[in-house]
Amino acid sequence: MTRMNPLLERNEQFARAYTPAALAPPAAQLVVLTCLDHRVDPAIVLGLELGDAPVIRNAGGRVTPAVVDDIAFLGFLAEQLFGDQLADGTLFEVAVIHHTQCGTSLLADPGFRHQAAEATGLSEVALEASAVADPHITVKADVERLLTSPLLSPKVSVSGHVYDIATGRVTTTVDARYPS
Ligand SMILES: [Zn+2]
User: Fold this and answer.
1) Which pLDDT band, with edges at 50, 70 and 90, does 140 fall under?
2) Which of 13, 49, 124, 158 is in Cβ range 3.0-4.6 Å of 117 for a Cys bridge?
3) In 10 A of CB 102, how many CB atoms?
4) CA of 99 to the centre of ligand 1 (A)
């Protein structure tokens, strides 16, 4: 028994009408970074179809060293596979999307953070770094963090956005920029 059973039935419906997507540059020319929160699924919120955009998700949608590594690898891969097909010389844009009512906002409270560190063995510093108390502030900080990483390809641009859980609306906080 697995709780996957009802979802496997849905997958069966999906597979019946399925056509595989070809290996090609992401149709949206984007990589999306957002929170793992189940209310923030970018396929639904942004209407992403198969083949549109790679999606990286973690607690808060934060730019962590692991995320920087993934984006550096995706940049290398895109350059190798599709580097000669680029319309404007851009490999892709990374859209960082933070959201309101993020569960990580609880980590902004030192007491809660201490308790979480004790219970999980994670460091308080790491937990503090993942907190999204005000998504407008953290998304700007994370766009900067990515743009100033020495691992980011100069052919990758970065933008910042906030998803409002109450309205379902995504607004752009930082327009796309290249590393300087
Ligand atoms: Zn969240």
Assistant:
1) very high
2) 124
3) 26
4) 6
